What we know:
The chain is α+β, with helices and mostly antiparallel strands. The chain contains four helices and six strands, in the order ααββααββββ. InterPro entries: ACOT13, HotDog_dom_sf, Thioestr_dom.
Amino acid sequence: MSDSNTPDKTERHAQMFLSLKGEDRIRVVLEDFGKQVADPDEKEWTQLLIPYMKIESVSPPDAPHPSVTFRFTVQPEHCNRLRNLHGGCTATLFDFCTSVPLALVARPGYWSRLGVSRTLNTTYLRPAPQGTEVLVECDIVQIGRRLCTLRGIMRRASDGIILATCEHGKVNTDLDVGAKA
């Protein structure tokens, strides 16, 4: 909570989806992050990606490795000078998309804020030219009270060829998780 006893942005976000289940949680996370806001202090540059993302599939939250797959179309503003998906944009896409499966298992005090990145290791294998539709498959590899490891695989939608992979480590930032000094 902020000093005025009103929820801050991350608390409002958690309150929006914790009452929901499964794919409904994922939809709300996507909608909330994709909102266009007038206040420049509230803008996040992932908003440039979300209009081109669609939920392809969502696993049950009790699956061994809860997962979400997104469909994304590479736009000109996401590309480098060679008209391929920019490496920084790929990393940002992985950062956001691999965090979303955490919403499937979140509860108050347990990943409800979706954490913050500790590591993001991206491996680029093939280019994704402008206009290419890709699938971004994301799953929870391991999750604990404080740390988790997430995995992302980006495939060309037309033939399933892997374009990039990532391993994403996150730290839980929920207020109920006390930090050691």
